[in-house]
Design goal:
This is Cytoplasmic protein. The protein is mainly α. The chain is 45% helix and 0% strand. Helix 5 crosses helix 7.
């Protein structure tokens, strides 16, 4: 889908002069919805003058009215024969002179919060060179002590959609390049159902006075019961009386 010229300025005008939703404006100008919300909050595109798409032959008033009455309506760019074939050209991203001093701050932000991004991806996002990125990574940049990390989207150096796409691509590449597990490591992995179905392993209490010989096997008790049973297995030994003369009862009379 073709995008309007001066997309950010057009978004500023639509935010200030219409009640069209952020999603509709983002789809029309090719920005992220959060960027459009940042424009409304004053965090993005500060100082950018709005560009009227109606007077500049990019939108019709009927399209704006239809979008305001229906949040699901998608704005359609007005046909302009002179704009046909004007596709995005390949090559390094052009950074305006007024924003070039902000590139080190955006590079530091990307290196800090998205270390998975390669130097080539960062170079495409903010329009810088690989030696500059390497210097900031290694903290050998001449002004590293004064650089504070700032989101490149907030600085207007790239779009949120471009940053999200680069991060997703880098994450997918990192997952694909992850080392393959060995057979022993794979055998140690169990499913969630298996892990939940496992019985808890018994733990022996420690540091409790009087339980130094505590055990869960029950073997000592069984041995004690066995020894006791063997001790009284012989009836004679059980009823064995102590040696010595037997005292007769005083009341007993042997003559009877």
């Amino acid at each position: 889908m073709a995008k309007p010229i001066m997309a950010k300025a057009t978004a500023v005008w639509l935010v200030d002069n219409t009640t069209i939703s952020f999603k509709q404006i983002a789809d029309f100008v090719g920005m992220h919805e959060l960027e459009v919300q940042g424009i409304a909050d004053g965090d993005v595109a500060q100082g950018v003058k709005g560009f009227d798409p109606v007077s500049n032959n990019q939108l019709t008033q009927d399209e704006i009215d239809a979008a305001q009455s229906n949040p699901l309506h998608k704005l359609q760019l007005k046909f302009n024969a002179a704009a046909q074939g004007e596709e995005k050209r390949r090559g390094p991203r052009y950074t305006p002179l007024s924003k070039r001093q902000d590139r080190p701050a955006s590079i530091l932000w990307l290196v800090k919060f998205h270390p998975e991004l390669s130097d080539g991806q960062i170079s495409k996002l903010v329009g810088t060179t690989k030696p500059t990125i390497q210097a900031i990574r290694e903290r050998t940049h001449w002004n590293i002590a004064n650089i504070q990390p700032i989101d490149p989207v907030a600085l207007g150096l790239c779009k949120q959609s471009e940053l999200d796409a680069a991060v997703q691509k880098a994450a997918a590449k990192k997952a694909a390049d992850a080392p393959v597990m060995s057979d022993d490591e794979r055998r140690k992995l169990v499913s969630t159902e298996q892990s939940l179905g496992m019985e808890a392993e018994p733990k022996i209490p420690t540091a409790i006075e009087g339980l130094e010989t505590f055990t869960l096997s029950g073997e000592p008790e069984e041995e004690e019961e066995k020894q006791g049973a063997e001790a009284f297995a012989d009836a004679d030994s059980f009823f064995n009386l102590p040696d010595g003369p037997v005292e007769e009862d005083e009341d007993s009379d042997p003559q009877r």
